[in-house]
Amino acid sequence: MACRNPEGLERSEFSYGFRPGRIAQDAVRKAQRYVQEGFQIVVDVDLEKFFDRVMAR
User: How many independent structural domains does the chain possess?
Assistant: First the structure.
């Protein structure tokens, strides 16, 4: 994901988790393309249970 502004990622074109018509291999190919374009860092974030913890506080 190449994202300078993380707000709205749930609707983002950069999101691949549980998106209709998208698979894990699509995310890997996209990350490889970003590296080829000159991005130096690729970050994979798994937010499973994150919102459960945030909402509980």
Answer: 1
